[in-house]
Amino acid sequence: MTEAVKIKLSKKDLESDQDVRWCPGCGDYAILATVQRTLAQLGVKRETTVFISGIGCSSRFPYYMNTYGFHTIHGRAPAIASGLKVTRPELDVWVITGDGDGLSIGGNHMIHALRRNMDLKIILFNNQIYGLTKGQYSPTSALGTRAASTPSGSVDHPLNPIELALGAGATFVARAADTDAKLLASILEQAYKHKGSVFIEILQNCPVFNDGVWEGVKDDPAGKQIALVDGKPLVFAGGTKGIKLGAGMVPEICEASDPAVLVHGERGSLLYAQLLAQLVQPHFPIPMGILHREDKATYETLAHAQVDEAIAKQGPGDLNKLMYSGMVWEVGADGTRH
């Protein structure tokens, strides 16, 4: 028996015939290009790849991918993706969402898709603003954000997407910036191979309504980022500074030579991963890379095993027989039951 010939794809093979329509300078262009290039290099099957989105600028994504896809309703992409994955577990299902779509109206669906460990690859574009509806503040907007809906400044404390994902039980949690093609490609490749709930936060720039919100992080990675490398110390600023735990398990910035500097472990404890999630600007550099991963049975695997077990014990079942079993009656023309 001869082996099947693996079809080699190029980035162009993953591009649809639709005109890409985002604002000039939008970070979504860079993300789209990296996703197309990476999936082509991985040799995915376009006929078994699906992109599902909700509502927002990021949610135009399925139109631009030469795969199957759904542009669904606001916040409900994880729910629709979950239904698809359960009924068609052989498909590779990606969810594209934004900080407004996925964490506000869609927050509940996001939590349960992650806690169930659905085998979904969820990519959340975080620009700390609503873009499509013209610049209202979002769940991740910084305290004091002046926007169309908060002219005096937001009084909401922002949501931390990584903390939410870890708390909900995601089994693969990572972060990258829209323009860091090398890191994002590496994360996408490992996310593609992971079986379970994937959550990738992408720091994305909105040049119209929140321009430069991540400028300090993306333009000065040596001082504002911690590059997460499994088995390597948490150091930054050109390797001169590090992160350690102080009294009360409070993270502190220290000299890289300090023997107490923490060593990163992608498969470390959830407590450690949550500590990483709490390293945010302006007090700490932001961890970039894979924060946490673990192996756990997926929802669809357990669900199908349960169905198979029931069929083995009770047979395939008969819907017509089920409908007419137990208490069954007919309503006559005069309204009486028989």
- Which CATH class of the largest domain? Alpha Beta
Distance between the termini: 63 Å
Coarse morphology: globular
| Shape-level CATH architecture of the largest domain | 3-Layer(aba) Sandwich
What can you tell me about this protein's structure?
It is a single chain. The chain has 338 residues and is of the alpha/beta class. The protein has two domains: 11-219, 3-Layer(aba) Sandwich (Rossmann fold), CATH 3.40.50.970; 227-282, no CATH class. The chain has twelve helices and eleven strands. The strands form two sheets. It has an eight-stranded mixed beta sheet, with helices on both faces. The protein has a three-stranded antiparallel beta sheet with strand order 8-9-10. The relative contact order is 0.11.
